[in-house]
Amino acid sequence: MENMYLNVFIYKIFNATAEHISLMVAASAVMATLTTVFIGALSDKIGKRKLFICGGYILWGVSIFAFALIKSDFATSAFGSLFSSAMVSASVGANLVIILDCIMTFFGSSANDAAFNAWLTDNTDNSNRGSAEGLNAMMPLVAVLVVFGGFMAFNLDDPSSWTVIFTIIGVVVSVIGIVGIFIIDDTKTIKQDSPYFGNVIYGFLPKTVAKNPKLYFFLFAFVIFNTSIQIFMPYLIIYYEKTLQMANYVFIMAPAIILASVVTFFWGKVYDSRGFRFSSNFALLWLIAGYILLYFFKTYVPVFVGSLLMMCGYLSGMAVFGAKIRDLTPSGKAGMFQGIRIFSQVLLPGVIGPYIGKTVLKSAEMIANNDGTFSFLPNQNIFLASLVVILLAFACIFIKKDCDNV
């Protein structure tokens, strides 16, 4: 919901510009990174992942529910004539969503990016990380599929629909945090006795880089991979619905996500048996093929095939990169390295990718809304830019001769 539909929310309800969406993704990326650096190191220091996972999920749900309180006329209702202009009021609302998104990201990243990802590294090894990462990588888009199905019953142009949506999702996330109290085993967490601030900066120290050159090479390649994804992903649903005029885009995305999730589940096992080079090459080639089809075609069948290949490449790539990075993470220091992992997965891609997307959409077509404001129409250039960037990641993997050595 956060990565795909929050952009739709501010686009539909507050007529957000490409600059608003780019700012929201970038600000969320910065918050996610800072949170993961500090909370990941703190979970190492006190030796408690479960506390941050469960507590973070409960508060994450509360913060999601808070979006239900931001209405399209919030600024006008709160400040009267000061924000009486529809355009100004919409801009204020969009900026409030961005601020609340940062608050929500703090709780979500504490729970998932910092604590859960460290817990997953603690509780897997070289024999099963690919399989575990395959499951882990497919879950976000399975969740998107659930959201797609649930949202079909709602009119997303109606602000009251979003109130119900945020309420449901907020409650579900908090309940998951409560359930986690009873099902998560914290026994394998290793408590670190080193100074907390030293843990915070450990992954960013030159001496750490020198000790783990392979890890940082793959983190660099992961930056490029995720930057490619972040160029188009913030605009994907808007592109389907508004630019391609596919009101039934759910029937493109849902089958693509289901099939891509199945492929990713098995592709994690391919990583375990065939190694990184084999599994990553196919993932990147699928992604490249998907970009090419989405750039050149705008009719239902090729868009579906392009979306399927893109999703297969995206999810499988996340799985194999994630497994490789976990394999190379020093034992007992998983929390310390979550900050540098999120730096490569979220911060740099979340700032650079949307900026590239915003730049290639600078001359995008504009359409007038009923209230006198204007909205942009994303075009196929986002896929061309994504293709150029992913070719750089492919080149990195190609020149690395010892990809499969840990």
Question: Could you explain the architecture of this structure?
Answer:
- The chain has 406 residues and is mainly α.
- The protein has a domain at 1-123 and 154-201.
- Helices cover 76% and strands 1% of the residues.
- The chain is built from 16 helices and two strands.
- The chain has helices at residues 5-14, 18-46, 49-66, 74-79, 86-122, 129-151, 159-183, 196-201, 206-211, 213-232, 236-243, 250-274, 276-296, 300-328, 334-360, 381-399, and strands spanning 366-368, 374-376.
- A two-stranded antiparallel sheet has the order 1-2.
- Helix 5 (86-122) packs antiparallel against helix 15 and helix 6 (129-151) packs antiparallel against helix 12 (250-274).
- It is globular, with a radius of gyration of 21 Å.
Give structural attributes.
single chain; 406 residues; mainly alpha; two-stranded antiparallel ribbon; 16 helices
Strand content: under 5%
What's the number of helices? Answer: 16
Order of helices and strands: HHHHHHHHHHHHHHHEEH
Task: Assign an overall shape.
Answer: globular
Mean pLDDT: 85
Contiguous uncertain segments of 5+ residues: none
Q: Determine the structural class based on helices, strands and strand pairing.
A: mainly alpha
Q: For the largest beta sheet, what order do the strands appear in spatially?
A: 1-2
Quaternary organisation of the protein chains: single chain
Q: If you compute it from the alpha carbons, what radius of gyration comes out, rounded to the nearest whole angstrom?
A: 21 Å
Q: Number of DSSP strands? A: 2
